[in-house]
Amino acid sequence: MTRIRFQRSLDDLKEKLLVMAGLAEQAIQRAVEAYRTRDLSICDLVSRSELAINRLEREIDQSALDLLAMEQPMAIDLRFILAVIKINADLERVGDAAKSISDRVRTMESMAIADLPVDIPRMASLAADMVRRSLQSFIEADPEMARAVLSMDDAVDSMNRIAHTTLGNVMAAECHLAPQALHALMVCRALERVADHATNIAEDVIFWVQGADVRHKGSYETSKPDPNSLAS
Amino acid sequence: MGVGIEVTNLNAWYGANHTLQDINLPIPANHATALIGPSGCGKSTFVRCLNRMHETNPIARVTGSVRIGEIDIYADASPVEIRRRVGMVFQRPNPFPTMSIYDNVCSGLKLNGYNNRKTLDEIVERSLRDAALWDEVKDDLKKKSGASLSGGQQQRMCIARALAVDPEVLLMDEPASALDPVSTSKIEDLIFQLKSQYTIVIVTHNMQQAARVAEKTGFFLNGRMVEFDSTHKIFTNPSDKRTEDYITGRFG
């Protein structure tokens, strides 16, 4: 083994990203708990987590930039650093989604708790599970585990569509519940976005480990540029 | 215009040392092809087989076929003819120190019997322009010796000297390894310009340089061609673990 210092830097980068991942995962769980219980003290915890996540995002980007500039990584190392940069952005957005949910909880403080026909805890559980599994696939460098996450996204999308319809019906039929229904709709949308970020993370893991670009439901083949486009 | 090179079952020896083993390689015309690999892997021996320089060593031997265009260079042509068609630029610039810039550039032409002053003037100017050196030396062509130029200018003058005999292929053995970053950048820009007219094969230890200038890259290890593919594929997602270990610096 050579390039010991570089390998240590890659390990440090991975460790930082996992710390950030832990914070983002915890933030989304707390935000949903705050929504369920209307507990504003949990919202404060989410806000503090978001600040920590934002700080880590900058640190990780800086570390990745330093490695790109100083080490000129190639092949799997280059793909790893690119994946880290993209996962970093996705985790920051997961933190934003958690903050967005907790901000809605604050707005809803004075509203009565309504029994709405939408299972937000179940949707949250599925989205959080996707985040957890995508991060596990990153820890284990396991593209098959990452592929399993991709197939979970349809279920969350479907739940979001159903919530949109049923909550729309509630708003039309029971005007006094419209504010709560609207907030619930926004929470569902935030959770659907969290699932999308988990999907992005899983796609980045596949790219890192196998060099395959599977974004936008594309082919699972490795992308191959047209050699003619490289000709002078 | 450059021509393609087809290497088939190429083997080379220095005495009992089997330095190249069963190399098969299609080098496309009018592209830059980079050869990378650790020291002693055979990449310089390989390029020396492409212009029959390998056989100038009395204990060296070559088998197999190298076709440059329609010609099998080991069967259909003399070494002198091949070296006119296949120019070579070395790691360190090698100007003839007592000759002027002008005489350095046209030395190959004179050896090939060109004497007409007007023709020589035209070829020297064209070659120096193609080597991106004309504007820097045009006022001192016959006043200054080639050795008085900077290292980067000397290397471009050597490229002009190689271009003057109108080759189809240009072999470059670590052409920028002794140069500073600005001179290196000029040589790389030059390679980019020249590949529209010539087929270029470049040996380099600088993988970023290979990635910048070449469309195709081959990885040599222990006298064998381990992997040959588009430069994009080699440097982002190589197929062979040994290639990946080498380009990520984990070799050995």
Task: Describe the protein's architecture and organization.
The complex is a heterodimer of chains A (about 230) and B (about 250). Chain A is built from 7 helices and no strands. With about 230 residues, chain A is mainly α. Chain A has one domain: Methane Monooxygenase Hydroxylase, Chain G, domain 1. In chain A, helix 3 runs antiparallel to helix 7. The radius of gyration of chain A is 20 Å and the shape is elongated. Chain A starts with a helix and ends in a 22-residue tail after the last helix. By secondary structure, chain B is an alpha/beta fold. Chain B has a domain of about 170 residues: Rossmann fold (3-Layer(aba) Sandwich). In chain B, about 35% of the residues lie in helices and about 25% in strands. In chain B, the strands form 2 sheets. A 6-stranded mixed beta sheet of chain B has the order 6-7-8-3-9-10, with helices on both faces. Chain B has a 4-stranded antiparallel beta sheet with strand order 2-1-4-5, with helices on one face. In chain B, helix 3 packs across helix 4. The longest helix of chain B is centred in the middle third of the chain and has 14 residues. The model of chain B has no long low-confidence stretch (mean pLDDT about 95). Chains A and B meet through helix 3 of A and helix 9 and helix 10 of B.
Residue share in helices of chain A? over 70%
Structural domains of chain A: how many:
1
The total count of helices of chain A amounts to: 7
Low-confidence stretches of chain A: 219-232
What is the strand content of chain A? under 5%
- Multimeric organization: heterodimer
The CATH class of chain A, by name, is Mainly Alpha
Using DSSP, what is the number of strands of chain A? 0
Helix content of chain B: 25-40%
- Going by CATH, what is the homologous superfamily of the domain at 5-94 and 170-247 in chain B? P-loop containing nucleotide triphosphate hydrolases
Q: How would you name the CATH homologous superfamily of chain A?
A: Phosphate transport system protein phou homolog 2, domain 2
Query: Strand order within the widest sheet of chain B?
Result: 6-7-8-3-9-10
Structural class call of chain B reads alpha/beta
Instruction: State the order of secondary-structure elements of chain A, H for helix, E for strand.
Output: HHHHHHH
